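Key result, reporting period 2: structure in, sequence out.
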């Protein structure tokens, strides 16, 4: 790993089909624009101790549009979590914020995936325990909060998950053990029913 300098990340650029790019200001006042998440390590880590990861390992998906929204969700704020990587291993860290994409105007041709429910992904920015940062979508992450302590469980690699929309909101079903996600709560049932009221 090369030289490292302290910096403050103060913004992002979202270019459709490109990785999220970050803007940083250095201690001497110099600004570097459009650096990938793989260019950064966390303060307090020695560069030689931080495992080198490729960009595609830290961020699976490129930006979905030119119109990002950056949000810190209260329920996830500084919570511990983990994501399943391309290496089929769990990687642990803490939630920082979420980058999401949308399309601003119905009068502009939308050739991106930001408004297609089954194609859309957000990017949760995570400070990994190993000193790296990652940007991972919902379907790769599990979060541990006070409200979800009882539901922080391993997802089996063989589990097949399919997504469906309902009038009540987003629901996630699996063919194994019927994990169901409904707005506001997660439950584990032995039911094959699609009715979340039975949880």
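The corresponding designed sequence is given below.
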């Amino acid at each position: 790993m090369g030289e490292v300098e302290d910096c403050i990340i103060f913004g992002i650029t979202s270019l459709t089909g490109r990785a999220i790019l970050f803007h940083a200001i250095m201690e001497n006042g110099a600004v570097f624009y459009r650096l990938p998440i793989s260019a950064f390590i966390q303060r307090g880590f020695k560069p030689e101790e931080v495992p080198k990861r490729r960009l595609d390992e830290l961020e699976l998906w490129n930006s979905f549009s030119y119109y990002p929204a950056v949000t810190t969700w209260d329920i996830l704020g500084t919570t511990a979590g983990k994501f399943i990587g391309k290496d089929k291993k769990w990687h642990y860290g803490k939630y920082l914020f979420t980058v999401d994409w949308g399309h601003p105007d119905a009068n502009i041709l939308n050739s991106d995936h930001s408004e297609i429910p089954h194609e859309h992904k957000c990017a949760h920015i995570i400070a990994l325990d190993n000193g790296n940062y990652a940007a991972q979508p919902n379907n790769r992450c599990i979060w541990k909060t006070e409200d979800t302590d009882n539901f922080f469980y391993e997802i089996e690699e063989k589990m097949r998950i399919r997504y469906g929309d309902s009038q009540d909101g987003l629901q996630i079903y699996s063919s194994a053990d019927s994990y169901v996600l409904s707005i506001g709560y997660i439950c584990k049932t032995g039911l094959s029913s699609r009715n979340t009221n039975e949880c």
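The chain has one helix and 13 strands. The mean pLDDT is 78. This case is discussed further under Risks and Mitigation.
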